[in-house]
Amino acid sequence: MYTIAPSILSADFATLGSEVRAVIDAGADWIHFDVMDNHYVPNLTIGPAVAAAIKPYCVTSDGQAVPLDVHLMVQPVDALAEAFANAGADLITFHPDAETHVDRTLQLIKDQGCKAGLVFNPAMPLDVLDWVIDKVDIILLMSVNPGFGGQCFLESTYRKIEQARRRIDSTGRDIRLEVDGGIKADNIALVASAGADTFVAGSAIFNAPDYTAVIEQMRSNLAAAK
Ligand code: DX5
Ligand code: ZN
């Protein structure tokens, strides 16, 4: 039920294929892929060609596909969402304040055969969900201001996770609640207790010497979460 999604933003880009393989061998459930455009956020990362290049590595040693979770921090969204769908994305999330016609963009992503989601910055209310939650497969809450790995988890996120959990439960639909930024083995259980089920972690995993040890520690802390 809990999903750990390492963010390759903190991986060694010179050996990205083997980094993806290593983190999957270490127990990653999804691969989180951060796309930044130096416009919506003040940083520039990787595009659809890199997604297509790592897609063949998104598989476990016994042949199970590992979903490629593309987090778009770009403005506008539509053309890049389509390009990432073609590059092999399984899930595509975008910031609703980065595209004018949110409902249309969600539909566009789903029409490409991908799961679609909305991302909320720390100071962004969840109100847009009043109108589009029926088209949403995943809600991603930012627990840092987007743009960089290695920042500290913002405590206000706990309240927002609880709010988002209530909204999801009231739909009765299977919507993932993902949290991104500053997640480590020592706070993951609190994030789960607030209501999250999917955890992005970049620096906590890729800056550690042993990916398996970190992911195992996260899972055992999750197992103890109340
Ligand atoms: C931040 C990105 C995150 C980031 C998380 O804008 O969306 O996915 O890589 O990194 P950590 O886990 O280091 O905060
Ligand atoms: Zn992200």
What can you see in these coordinates?
This protein has helices spanning 16-25, 48-54, 78-87, 102-111, 129-132, 157-171, 188-194, 203-206, 211-223, and strands at residues 3-6, 31-36, 68-73, 91-94, 115-120, 138-142, 176-180, 198-201. The protein is of the alpha/beta class and 226 residues long. It has one domain (3-223): TIM Barrel (Alpha-Beta Barrel). An eight-stranded parallel β-sheet has the order 1-8-7-6-5-4-3-2. α2 links the parallel β2 and β3 (68-73). It is globular, with a radius of gyration of 16 Å. Bound molecules: D-xylitol-5-phosphate (DX5) and zinc ion.
Itemize the secondary structure elements and their pairings:
Elements: E1 3-6, H1 16-25, E2 31-36, H2 48-54, E3 68-73, H3 78-87, E4 91-94, H4 102-111, E5 115-120, H5 129-132, E6 138-142, H6 157-171, E7 176-180, H7 188-194, E8 198-201, H8 203-206, H9 211-223
Parallel strand pairs: 1-8, 2-3, 3-4, 4-5, 5-6, 6-7, 7-8
Helix pairs in contact: 2-3
The structure holds D-xylitol-5-phosphate (DX5) and zinc ion.
> Could you name the CATH homologous superfamily?
Aldolase class I
How many helices? 9
Task: Based on the coordinates given, report the CATH architecture.
Answer: Alpha-Beta Barrel
Distinct ligands, ions and cofactors found in the model: D-xylitol-5-phosphate, zinc ion
Query: Spans with pLDDT under 50 lasting ≥5 residues?
Result: none
The class by helix and strand makeup works out as alpha/beta
Major β-sheet, in short?
8 strands, parallel
Give the averaged pLDDT, no decimals. Answer: 98
Order of helices and strands: EHEHEHEHEHEHEHEHH
Helix content: 25-40%
Tally of structural domains: 1
Q: The CATH topology is what?
A: TIM Barrel
What's the count of strands?
Answer: 8
Range of strand content: 15-25%
Report strand order across the widest sheet: 1-8-7-6-5-4-3-2
- Span from first to last CA? 14 Å
Shape: globular
